[in-house]
Amino acid sequence: LAERKGLLNNMSMFEQAVPLDENRGQWSKKLDYILSMVGYSVGLSNIWRFPYLCYQNGGGVGWATIVITLMVSTYFNVIIAYSLMFFFESLTMKALPWSLCGNWWNTENCLDYNNASIYESYMRYRNRVLNISSGIDNMGGLVNHLVPCLFASWLITATCLIKGVKSSGKVVYFTAIFPYVLLTILLVRGVTLEGATTGIMYYVKPNFTRLVEPRVWSDAAFQVFFSLGPGWGGLITMGSYNRFNNNCLRDSYILPMIMELTSFFAGFVVFSVIGFMAHVTGKRIEEVVAEGPGLAFVTYPEVVSRMPMSQLWAALFFFMVLTVGVDSVGGMYLLHLVDQYCAFLTVVIICFIELISFAWIYGAERILSDFEFMIGKSLSPLWPVFWRFATTAVVVAIFFVSVFQYSAELKMGDDYRYPAWSIALGWCISCSSLVLIFIYMIWKLYDTPGETLQQPTKRWGPANPTIRMEWEAYKNTAKYKQTLKQRLHKFYQGSPLQKYRERMSRTAV
Protein backbone atom coordinates (compact mmCIF):
# COMPACT_ATOMS: atom_id res chain seq x y z
CA LEU A 1 0.00 0.00 0.00
CA ALA A 2 2.91 2.32 0.76
CA GLU A 3 4.37 1.66 -2.69
CA ARG A 4 0.98 2.26 -4.25
CA LYS A 5 0.58 5.55 -2.35
CA GLY A 6 4.00 6.69 -3.47
CA LEU A 7 3.08 5.95 -7.06
CA LEU A 8 -0.15 7.93 -6.78
CA ASN A 9 1.63 10.89 -5.23
CA ASN A 10 3.82 11.10 -8.31
CA MET A 11 0.94 11.89 -10.66
CA SER A 12 3.06 12.65 -13.71
CA MET A 13 4.70 9.24 -13.39
CA PHE A 14 1.34 7.56 -12.90
CA GLU A 15 -0.22 9.27 -15.89
CA GLN A 16 2.66 8.14 -18.10
CA ALA A 17 2.40 4.57 -16.84
CA VAL A 18 -1.38 4.50 -17.17
CA PRO A 19 -2.50 6.32 -20.33
CA LEU A 20 -6.02 7.60 -20.82
CA ASP A 21 -8.55 5.35 -22.46
CA GLU A 22 -8.91 7.30 -25.69
CA ASN A 23 -11.54 4.96 -27.12
CA ARG A 24 -13.92 5.26 -24.19
CA GLY A 25 -13.00 8.76 -23.06
CA GLN A 26 -12.48 10.27 -19.61
CA TRP A 27 -13.30 13.51 -17.84
CA SER A 28 -10.80 16.13 -18.97
CA LYS A 29 -10.99 17.93 -15.61
CA LYS A 30 -12.06 17.01 -12.10
CA LEU A 31 -14.50 19.95 -12.15
CA ASP A 32 -16.26 18.44 -15.18
CA TYR A 33 -17.04 15.36 -13.11
CA ILE A 34 -18.12 17.26 -9.99
CA LEU A 35 -20.47 19.56 -11.92
CA SER A 36 -21.88 16.59 -13.83
CA MET A 37 -22.63 14.87 -10.54
CA VAL A 38 -24.24 18.05 -9.21
CA GLY A 39 -26.32 18.36 -12.36
CA TYR A 40 -27.32 14.70 -12.07
CA SER A 41 -28.40 14.91 -8.42
CA VAL A 42 -29.67 18.49 -8.22
CA GLY A 43 -32.61 18.61 -10.55
CA LEU A 44 -36.36 18.89 -10.81
CA SER A 45 -36.96 16.91 -7.63
CA ASN A 46 -35.09 19.56 -5.62
CA ILE A 47 -37.25 22.30 -7.14
CA TRP A 48 -40.66 20.71 -6.73
CA ARG A 49 -40.52 17.45 -4.74
CA PHE A 50 -38.50 18.50 -1.68
CA PRO A 51 -40.56 21.64 -0.88
CA TYR A 52 -43.80 19.72 -1.35
CA LEU A 53 -42.66 16.95 1.02
CA CYS A 54 -41.75 19.60 3.60
CA TYR A 55 -45.31 20.91 3.40
CA GLN A 56 -46.86 17.45 3.45
CA ASN A 57 -44.88 16.15 6.42
CA GLY A 58 -44.62 19.21 8.53
CA GLY A 59 -41.59 20.68 7.66
CA GLY A 60 -28.93 -8.11 -13.39
CA VAL A 61 -28.93 -5.14 -11.19
CA GLY A 62 -27.18 -3.29 -14.02
CA TRP A 63 -29.94 -4.12 -16.47
CA ALA A 64 -32.58 -3.31 -13.89
CA THR A 65 -31.07 0.14 -13.37
CA ILE A 66 -31.06 0.72 -17.13
CA VAL A 67 -34.76 -0.15 -17.39
CA ILE A 68 -35.83 1.98 -14.44
CA THR A 69 -33.72 4.92 -15.63
CA LEU A 70 -35.27 4.59 -19.09
CA MET A 71 -38.76 4.72 -17.60
CA VAL A 72 -38.08 7.79 -15.51
CA SER A 73 -36.18 9.61 -18.27
CA THR A 74 -39.24 9.35 -20.53
CA TYR A 75 -41.51 11.29 -18.20
CA PHE A 76 -38.79 13.70 -17.06
CA ASN A 77 -38.48 14.82 -20.66
CA VAL A 78 -42.23 15.44 -20.65
CA ILE A 79 -41.69 17.89 -17.78
CA ILE A 80 -38.87 19.51 -19.73
CA ALA A 81 -41.31 19.81 -22.64
CA TYR A 82 -43.67 21.77 -20.37
CA SER A 83 -40.85 24.14 -19.47
CA LEU A 84 -40.02 24.64 -23.16
CA MET A 85 -43.59 25.69 -23.85
CA PHE A 86 -43.55 28.18 -20.95
CA PHE A 87 -40.13 29.40 -22.08
CA PHE A 88 -41.16 30.18 -25.66
CA GLU A 89 -44.45 31.79 -24.64
CA SER A 90 -42.61 34.00 -22.14
CA LEU A 91 -40.41 35.27 -24.97
CA THR A 92 -43.01 35.66 -27.71
CA MET A 93 -46.13 37.03 -25.99
CA LYS A 94 -46.69 40.66 -25.03
CA ALA A 95 -47.87 39.71 -21.54
CA LEU A 96 -47.39 36.57 -19.50
CA PRO A 97 -50.33 34.29 -20.37
CA TRP A 98 -50.94 33.39 -16.72
CA SER A 99 -50.91 36.97 -15.42
CA LEU A 100 -54.50 37.87 -16.37
CA CYS A 101 -57.96 36.34 -16.35
CA GLY A 102 -60.28 36.44 -19.35
CA ASN A 103 -58.74 33.60 -21.36
CA TRP A 104 -60.73 30.67 -22.73
CA TRP A 105 -59.18 28.25 -20.24
CA ASN A 106 -60.18 30.31 -17.19
CA THR A 107 -63.10 29.46 -14.95
CA GLU A 108 -65.50 31.92 -13.39
CA ASN A 109 -63.51 31.65 -10.15
CA CYS A 110 -60.38 33.19 -11.68
CA LEU A 111 -59.17 35.81 -9.20
CA ASP A 112 -57.46 39.08 -10.14
CA TYR A 113 -55.26 40.87 -7.65
CA ASN A 114 -53.62 44.13 -8.70
CA ASN A 115 -53.77 43.05 -12.36
CA ALA A 116 -52.25 39.64 -11.63
CA SER A 117 -54.27 36.50 -11.00
CA ILE A 118 -53.43 34.14 -8.17
CA TYR A 119 -55.01 31.01 -9.59
CA GLU A 120 -54.65 31.84 -13.26
CA SER A 121 -51.32 30.00 -13.30
CA TYR A 122 -53.00 26.86 -11.94
CA MET A 123 -55.92 26.97 -14.37
CA ARG A 124 -53.66 27.63 -17.32
CA TYR A 125 -51.35 24.78 -16.36
CA ARG A 126 -54.25 22.35 -16.01
CA ASN A 127 -56.60 23.46 -18.79
CA ARG A 128 -54.28 24.99 -21.37
CA VAL A 129 -50.83 23.38 -20.99
CA LEU A 130 -51.97 19.87 -20.06
CA ASN A 131 -55.42 20.11 -21.66
CA ILE A 132 -56.09 17.45 -19.06
CA SER A 133 -58.82 14.87 -19.55
CA SER A 134 -61.30 13.49 -17.03
CA GLY A 135 -59.04 10.59 -16.05
CA ILE A 136 -56.61 7.89 -17.12
CA ASP A 137 -59.53 5.99 -18.70
CA ASN A 138 -59.80 8.84 -21.20
CA MET A 139 -56.31 9.16 -22.67
CA GLY A 140 -57.59 11.08 -25.71
CA GLY A 141 -55.40 12.29 -28.54
CA LEU A 142 -52.13 14.16 -28.71
CA VAL A 143 -51.80 17.67 -27.32
CA ASN A 144 -50.58 19.43 -30.44
CA HIS A 145 -48.60 22.19 -28.75
CA LEU A 146 -46.67 19.69 -26.57
CA VAL A 147 -45.57 17.37 -29.39
CA PRO A 148 -42.88 19.71 -30.83
CA CYS A 149 -41.79 20.66 -27.31
CA LEU A 150 -41.28 17.03 -26.38
CA PHE A 151 -39.37 16.40 -29.60
CA ALA A 152 -37.18 19.42 -28.86
CA SER A 153 -36.47 18.20 -25.31
CA TRP A 154 -35.25 14.84 -26.61
CA LEU A 155 -33.21 16.59 -29.30
CA ILE A 156 -31.52 18.80 -26.69
CA THR A 157 -30.77 15.75 -24.52
CA ALA A 158 -29.25 13.89 -27.47
CA THR A 159 -27.15 16.91 -28.46
CA CYS A 160 -25.70 17.21 -24.96
CA LEU A 161 -24.79 13.52 -24.80
CA ILE A 162 -23.90 12.69 -28.39
CA LYS A 163 -20.14 12.88 -27.76
CA GLY A 164 -20.24 11.38 -24.29
CA VAL A 165 -18.36 13.10 -21.49
CA LYS A 166 -16.52 15.33 -23.95
CA SER A 167 -19.75 17.21 -24.67
CA SER A 168 -21.73 16.73 -21.44
CA GLY A 169 -18.71 17.71 -19.33
CA LYS A 170 -18.71 21.17 -20.95
CA VAL A 171 -22.49 21.66 -20.95
CA VAL A 172 -22.73 21.24 -17.17
CA TYR A 173 -20.54 24.29 -16.59
CA PHE A 174 -23.64 26.28 -17.46
CA THR A 175 -26.53 23.94 -16.64
CA ALA A 176 -25.28 23.16 -13.12
CA ILE A 177 -24.43 26.76 -12.14
CA PHE A 178 -27.18 28.82 -13.80
CA PRO A 179 -30.03 27.42 -11.62
CA TYR A 180 -28.31 28.70 -8.47
CA VAL A 181 -28.05 32.21 -9.90
CA LEU A 182 -31.72 32.35 -10.83
CA LEU A 183 -32.94 30.74 -7.60
CA THR A 184 -31.05 33.44 -5.69
CA ILE A 185 -32.77 36.17 -7.73
CA LEU A 186 -36.18 34.56 -7.15
CA LEU A 187 -35.48 34.33 -3.42
CA VAL A 188 -34.61 38.03 -3.21
CA ARG A 189 -37.91 38.88 -4.89
CA GLY A 190 -39.87 36.27 -2.95
CA VAL A 191 -38.88 37.48 0.52
CA THR A 192 -40.01 41.03 -0.34
CA LEU A 193 -43.59 39.89 -1.05
CA GLU A 194 -46.22 40.47 1.62
CA GLY A 195 -46.86 37.33 3.64
CA ALA A 196 -43.53 35.72 2.68
CA THR A 197 -42.43 35.55 6.33
CA THR A 198 -45.44 33.41 7.21
CA GLY A 199 -44.57 30.92 4.49
CA ILE A 200 -40.90 30.77 5.46
CA MET A 201 -41.75 30.25 9.14
CA TYR A 202 -44.04 27.39 8.16
CA TYR A 203 -41.11 25.89 6.26
CA VAL A 204 -38.40 26.19 8.92
CA LYS A 205 -40.55 25.41 11.97
CA PRO A 206 -40.65 21.62 12.27
CA ASN A 207 -43.66 19.68 13.45
CA PHE A 208 -42.02 17.06 15.65
CA THR A 209 -45.28 15.21 16.24
CA ARG A 210 -45.17 14.04 12.62
CA LEU A 211 -41.92 12.13 13.22
CA VAL A 212 -43.88 9.18 14.63
CA GLU A 213 -45.68 8.72 11.30
CA PRO A 214 -44.14 6.12 8.96
CA ARG A 215 -45.03 8.20 5.89
CA VAL A 216 -42.69 11.00 6.98
CA TRP A 217 -39.69 8.67 7.01
CA SER A 218 -40.80 6.99 3.80
CA ASP A 219 -41.09 10.33 1.99
CA ALA A 220 -37.71 11.46 3.34
CA ALA A 221 -36.10 8.27 2.06
CA PHE A 222 -37.87 8.73 -1.27
CA GLN A 223 -36.35 12.19 -1.66
CA VAL A 224 -32.85 10.92 -0.86
CA PHE A 225 -33.11 8.01 -3.28
CA PHE A 226 -34.57 10.21 -6.00
CA SER A 227 -32.07 13.06 -5.65
CA LEU A 228 -28.81 11.25 -4.94
CA GLY A 229 -29.62 8.53 -7.44
CA PRO A 230 -28.35 5.30 -5.82
CA GLY A 231 -29.70 2.31 -7.69
CA TRP A 232 -30.28 4.23 -10.91
CA GLY A 233 -26.92 3.52 -12.52
CA GLY A 234 -26.11 7.15 -13.30
CA LEU A 235 -23.56 7.49 -10.50
CA ILE A 236 -21.80 4.32 -11.61
CA THR A 237 -21.79 5.41 -15.24
CA MET A 238 -20.35 8.87 -14.62
CA GLY A 239 -17.90 7.58 -12.03
CA SER A 240 -16.57 5.07 -14.56
CA TYR A 241 -15.19 7.95 -16.65
CA ASN A 242 -12.85 9.06 -13.85
CA ARG A 243 -9.22 8.16 -13.56
CA PHE A 244 -8.73 4.95 -11.65
CA ASN A 245 -7.23 6.73 -8.64
CA ASN A 246 -10.05 9.28 -8.27
CA ASN A 247 -10.83 9.95 -4.60
CA CYS A 248 -14.39 8.63 -4.63
CA LEU A 249 -14.55 8.84 -0.81
CA ARG A 250 -14.24 12.62 -0.97
CA ASP A 251 -16.83 12.78 -3.74
CA SER A 252 -19.28 10.82 -1.58
CA TYR A 253 -19.13 13.65 0.97
CA ILE A 254 -19.35 16.54 -1.49
CA LEU A 255 -22.36 15.42 -3.52
CA PRO A 256 -24.87 14.80 -0.68
CA MET A 257 -23.93 18.11 0.96
CA ILE A 258 -24.55 20.07 -2.26
CA MET A 259 -27.81 18.23 -2.91
CA GLU A 260 -29.22 18.79 0.58
CA LEU A 261 -28.20 22.45 0.69
CA THR A 262 -29.80 23.03 -2.71
CA SER A 263 -33.07 21.42 -1.62
CA PHE A 264 -33.07 23.48 1.57
CA PHE A 265 -32.33 26.66 -0.39
CA ALA A 266 -35.07 25.98 -2.97
CA GLY A 267 -37.53 25.51 -0.12
CA PHE A 268 -37.08 29.14 0.94
CA VAL A 269 -37.90 30.29 -2.59
CA VAL A 270 -41.05 28.18 -2.77
CA PHE A 271 -42.44 28.93 0.68
CA SER A 272 -41.87 32.66 0.41
CA VAL A 273 -44.20 32.62 -2.62
CA ILE A 274 -46.65 30.24 -0.95
CA GLY A 275 -46.85 32.59 2.04
CA PHE A 276 -47.65 35.45 -0.31
CA MET A 277 -50.36 33.46 -2.10
CA ALA A 278 -51.92 32.48 1.23
CA HIS A 279 -51.89 36.12 2.36
CA VAL A 280 -53.59 37.40 -0.80
CA THR A 281 -56.29 34.74 -0.90
CA GLY A 282 -56.89 34.68 2.85
CA LYS A 283 -56.35 30.92 2.96
CA ARG A 284 -54.08 28.70 4.98
CA ILE A 285 -50.75 27.63 3.54
CA GLU A 286 -51.94 24.01 3.38
CA GLU A 287 -54.64 25.05 0.92
CA VAL A 288 -52.42 26.73 -1.67
CA VAL A 289 -49.63 24.18 -2.10
CA ALA A 290 -49.56 22.43 -5.46
CA GLU A 291 -48.35 18.84 -5.71
CA GLY A 292 -45.70 17.38 -8.00
CA PRO A 293 -44.66 19.18 -11.20
CA GLY A 294 -47.51 21.61 -10.64
CA LEU A 295 -45.36 23.28 -8.01
CA ALA A 296 -42.86 24.33 -10.67
CA PHE A 297 -45.53 25.39 -13.15
CA VAL A 298 -48.00 27.03 -10.72
CA THR A 299 -46.14 28.44 -7.71
CA TYR A 300 -42.95 29.70 -9.36
CA PRO A 301 -44.77 31.55 -12.19
CA GLU A 302 -46.57 33.62 -9.56
CA VAL A 303 -43.37 35.19 -8.26
CA VAL A 304 -41.90 35.93 -11.70
CA SER A 305 -45.16 37.59 -12.80
CA ARG A 306 -44.64 40.15 -10.01
CA MET A 307 -41.08 41.06 -10.90
CA PRO A 308 -39.99 43.96 -13.11
CA MET A 309 -39.45 42.72 -16.68
CA SER A 310 -41.54 39.69 -15.78
CA GLN A 311 -41.34 38.16 -19.25
CA LEU A 312 -37.54 38.09 -19.09
CA TRP A 313 -37.50 36.45 -15.67
CA ALA A 314 -40.19 33.97 -16.70
CA ALA A 315 -38.14 32.99 -19.74
CA LEU A 316 -35.03 32.59 -17.58
CA PHE A 317 -36.87 30.52 -14.99
CA PHE A 318 -38.29 28.04 -17.45
CA PHE A 319 -34.94 27.91 -19.18
CA MET A 320 -33.54 26.93 -15.79
CA VAL A 321 -36.13 24.14 -15.47
CA LEU A 322 -35.04 23.03 -18.91
CA THR A 323 -31.40 22.87 -17.81
CA VAL A 324 -32.11 20.77 -14.71
CA GLY A 325 -34.25 18.57 -15.95
CA VAL A 326 -46.85 10.87 -23.20
CA ASP A 327 -47.85 14.08 -24.77
CA SER A 328 -51.60 13.11 -24.77
CA VAL A 329 -54.45 14.76 -22.89
CA GLY A 330 -54.25 11.96 -20.31
CA GLY A 331 -50.47 12.05 -20.14
CA MET A 332 -50.28 13.69 -16.71
CA TYR A 333 -52.20 10.79 -15.18
CA LEU A 334 -49.74 8.35 -16.72
CA LEU A 335 -46.78 10.49 -15.62
CA HIS A 336 -48.05 10.52 -12.03
CA LEU A 337 -48.65 6.75 -12.14
CA VAL A 338 -45.10 5.98 -13.33
CA ASP A 339 -43.68 8.44 -10.80
CA GLN A 340 -45.45 6.69 -7.93
CA TYR A 341 -44.68 3.09 -8.87
CA CYS A 342 -41.38 3.24 -10.73
CA ALA A 343 -39.33 5.81 -8.89
CA PHE A 344 -39.03 4.53 -5.33
CA LEU A 345 -39.86 1.02 -4.15
CA THR A 346 -38.15 -0.61 -7.11
CA VAL A 347 -35.01 1.46 -6.54
CA VAL A 348 -34.97 0.46 -2.85
CA ILE A 349 -35.09 -3.21 -3.83
CA ILE A 350 -32.31 -2.72 -6.38
CA CYS A 351 -30.14 -0.99 -3.75
CA PHE A 352 -30.79 -3.86 -1.33
CA ILE A 353 -29.67 -6.42 -3.92
CA GLU A 354 -26.56 -4.32 -4.64
CA LEU A 355 -25.76 -4.25 -0.92
CA ILE A 356 -26.15 -8.01 -0.58
CA SER A 357 -24.07 -8.62 -3.70
CA PHE A 358 -21.14 -6.43 -2.70
CA ALA A 359 -21.13 -6.25 1.10
CA TRP A 360 -22.09 -9.87 1.78
CA ILE A 361 -21.34 -12.00 -1.31
CA TYR A 362 -18.30 -10.22 -2.77
CA GLY A 363 -17.33 -9.12 0.73
CA ALA A 364 -17.16 -5.77 2.49
CA GLU A 365 -13.49 -6.42 3.31
CA ARG A 366 -12.69 -6.85 -0.37
CA ILE A 367 -14.48 -3.62 -1.23
CA LEU A 368 -12.50 -1.76 1.44
CA SER A 369 -9.23 -3.20 0.15
CA ASP A 370 -10.16 -2.28 -3.42
CA PHE A 371 -10.93 1.29 -2.35
CA GLU A 372 -7.61 1.52 -0.51
CA PHE A 373 -5.81 0.30 -3.61
CA MET A 374 -7.58 2.89 -5.75
CA ILE A 375 -7.08 5.99 -3.61
CA GLY A 376 -3.77 4.98 -2.04
CA LYS A 377 -4.57 5.35 1.65
CA SER A 378 -5.99 3.29 4.49
CA LEU A 379 -9.67 3.68 5.33
CA SER A 380 -11.55 3.18 8.57
CA PRO A 381 -12.63 -0.43 9.22
CA LEU A 382 -15.99 0.97 10.27
CA TRP A 383 -16.96 1.28 6.61
CA PRO A 384 -17.54 -2.48 6.21
CA VAL A 385 -19.66 -2.38 9.37
CA PHE A 386 -21.79 0.39 7.87
CA TRP A 387 -22.14 -1.41 4.54
CA ARG A 388 -22.95 -4.81 6.03
CA PHE A 389 -25.15 -3.89 8.94
CA ALA A 390 -26.17 -0.23 9.27
CA THR A 391 -26.92 0.52 5.61
CA THR A 392 -28.55 -2.85 5.02
CA ALA A 393 -30.75 -2.41 8.09
CA VAL A 394 -31.79 1.09 6.99
CA VAL A 395 -32.70 -0.06 3.47
CA VAL A 396 -34.71 -3.01 4.84
CA ALA A 397 -36.48 -0.70 7.29
CA ILE A 398 -37.33 1.75 4.49
CA PHE A 399 -38.80 -1.10 2.46
CA PHE A 400 -41.02 -2.39 5.25
CA VAL A 401 -42.12 1.10 6.29
CA SER A 402 -43.09 1.80 2.68
CA VAL A 403 -45.02 -1.46 2.47
CA PHE A 404 -46.67 -0.76 5.83
CA GLN A 405 -47.95 2.64 4.77
CA TYR A 406 -48.84 1.54 1.25
CA SER A 407 -52.39 2.31 0.20
CA ALA A 408 -54.14 0.45 -2.59
CA GLU A 409 -55.83 3.72 -3.46
CA LEU A 410 -53.84 6.15 -5.61
CA LYS A 411 -54.97 9.74 -5.98
CA MET A 412 -53.78 12.74 -7.98
CA GLY A 413 -54.68 15.85 -6.07
CA ASP A 414 -57.85 15.73 -4.01
CA ASP A 415 -60.40 15.07 -6.71
CA TYR A 416 -59.18 12.13 -8.81
CA ARG A 417 -58.82 8.47 -7.82
CA TYR A 418 -57.13 5.99 -10.11
CA PRO A 419 -59.14 2.94 -11.25
CA ALA A 420 -58.08 -0.56 -10.19
CA TRP A 421 -56.68 -1.52 -13.60
CA SER A 422 -54.26 1.42 -13.53
CA ILE A 423 -52.97 0.30 -10.11
CA ALA A 424 -52.28 -3.14 -11.60
CA LEU A 425 -50.48 -1.44 -14.49
CA GLY A 426 -48.37 0.50 -11.99
CA TRP A 427 -47.27 -2.71 -10.28
CA CYS A 428 -46.39 -4.25 -13.65
CA ILE A 429 -44.24 -1.21 -14.41
CA SER A 430 -42.61 -1.48 -10.99
CA CYS A 431 -41.80 -5.19 -11.37
CA SER A 432 -40.63 -5.08 -14.98
CA SER A 433 -37.11 -3.99 -14.08
CA LEU A 434 -36.80 -6.45 -11.18
CA VAL A 435 -37.59 -9.43 -13.39
CA LEU A 436 -34.39 -8.78 -15.35
CA ILE A 437 -32.29 -9.26 -12.21
CA PHE A 438 -33.47 -12.83 -11.70
CA ILE A 439 -33.33 -13.68 -15.41
CA TYR A 440 -29.73 -12.43 -15.65
CA MET A 441 -28.76 -14.18 -12.39
CA ILE A 442 -30.05 -17.55 -13.62
CA TRP A 443 -28.34 -17.10 -16.98
CA LYS A 444 -24.96 -16.20 -15.42
CA LEU A 445 -25.10 -19.18 -13.05
CA TYR A 446 -25.69 -21.39 -16.07
CA ASP A 447 -23.13 -19.63 -18.27
CA THR A 448 -20.22 -19.65 -15.76
CA PRO A 449 -19.93 -23.24 -14.46
CA GLY A 450 -17.44 -23.91 -11.71
CA GLU A 451 -17.60 -20.41 -10.20
CA THR A 452 -18.76 -20.11 -6.60
CA LEU A 453 -21.10 -17.35 -5.49
CA GLN A 454 -18.28 -15.53 -3.69
CA GLN A 455 -15.70 -15.93 -6.45
CA PRO A 456 -15.63 -13.12 -9.05
CA THR A 457 -15.26 -14.05 -12.70
CA LYS A 458 -11.88 -13.72 -14.39
CA ARG A 459 -13.03 -10.51 -16.07
CA TRP A 460 -13.51 -8.80 -12.69
CA GLY A 461 -10.97 -6.10 -11.92
CA PRO A 462 -9.41 -2.93 -13.37
CA ALA A 463 -9.84 -2.65 -17.13
CA ASN A 464 -6.44 -1.03 -17.68
CA PRO A 465 -3.78 -3.77 -18.11
CA THR A 466 -1.09 -1.84 -16.20
CA ILE A 467 -3.29 -1.21 -13.17
CA ARG A 468 -4.63 -4.74 -13.32
CA MET A 469 -1.13 -6.17 -12.90
CA GLU A 470 -0.64 -4.02 -9.79
CA TRP A 471 -4.03 -5.10 -8.46
CA GLU A 472 -3.30 -8.80 -8.99
CA ALA A 473 -0.07 -8.40 -7.03
CA TYR A 474 -1.84 -6.40 -4.31
CA LYS A 475 -4.41 -9.18 -3.81
CA ASN A 476 -1.64 -11.49 -2.59
CA THR A 477 -0.55 -9.13 0.20
CA ALA A 478 -1.49 -9.58 3.84
CA LYS A 479 -3.15 -6.16 3.80
CA TYR A 480 -5.68 -7.23 1.17
CA LYS A 481 -6.45 -10.50 2.96
CA GLN A 482 -7.16 -8.94 6.36
CA THR A 483 -10.49 -9.98 7.84
CA LEU A 484 -12.96 -7.49 9.26
CA LYS A 485 -12.18 -8.74 12.77
CA GLN A 486 -8.45 -8.09 12.26
CA ARG A 487 -9.14 -4.61 10.89
CA LEU A 488 -11.41 -3.70 13.81
CA HIS A 489 -8.87 -5.00 16.34
CA LYS A 490 -6.13 -2.89 14.78
CA PHE A 491 -8.48 0.11 14.73
CA TYR A 492 -9.27 -0.46 18.41
CA GLN A 493 -5.62 -0.53 19.47
CA GLY A 494 -4.62 2.90 20.77
CA SER A 495 -8.09 4.34 20.15
CA PRO A 496 -9.79 6.69 22.67
CA LEU A 497 -12.20 3.87 23.51
CA GLN A 498 -9.37 1.53 24.51
CA LYS A 499 -7.70 4.25 26.59
CA TYR A 500 -11.01 5.01 28.30
CA ARG A 501 -11.60 1.36 29.18
CA GLU A 502 -8.04 0.99 30.53
CA ARG A 503 -8.49 4.11 32.64
CA MET A 504 -11.80 2.82 34.00
CA SER A 505 -10.18 -0.54 34.81
CA ARG A 506 -7.39 1.13 36.79
CA THR A 507 -9.94 3.26 38.63
CA ALA A 508 -11.98 0.18 39.56
CA VAL A 509 -8.88 -1.56 40.95
UniProtKB/TrEMBL annotation:
Major location (coarse): membrane
Residue spans crossing the bilayer: 33-51, 63-88, 171-191, 220-241, 253-278, 312-335, 342-362, 382-406, 418-443
Cellular compartment(s): Membrane
SUPFAM superfamilies, per the entry: SNF-like
Source organism superkingdom: Eukaryota
Gene Ontology molecular function: amino acid:sodium symporter activity; metal ion binding
Disulphide connectivity of cysteines: C101-C110
Keywords: Disulfide bond, Glycoprotein, Membrane, Metal-binding, Sodium, Symport, Transmembrane, Transmembrane helix, Transport
InterPro entries: Na/ntran_symport (IPR000175), SNS_sf (IPR037272)
Residues engaged in binding Na(+): G39, V42, N46, S227, D327, S328
One Pfam family, short name: SNF
Topology in membrane: Multi-pass membrane protein
An annotated GO BP: amino acid import across plasma membrane
Keyword Metal-binding: yes
GO cellular component, one term: plasma membrane
Similarity field: Belongs to the sodium:neurotransmitter symporter (SNF) (TC 2.A.22) family.
Annotated protein name in UniProt: Sodium-and chloride-dependent glycine transporter 1
Organism in which the protein naturally occurs: Trichinella pseudospiralis
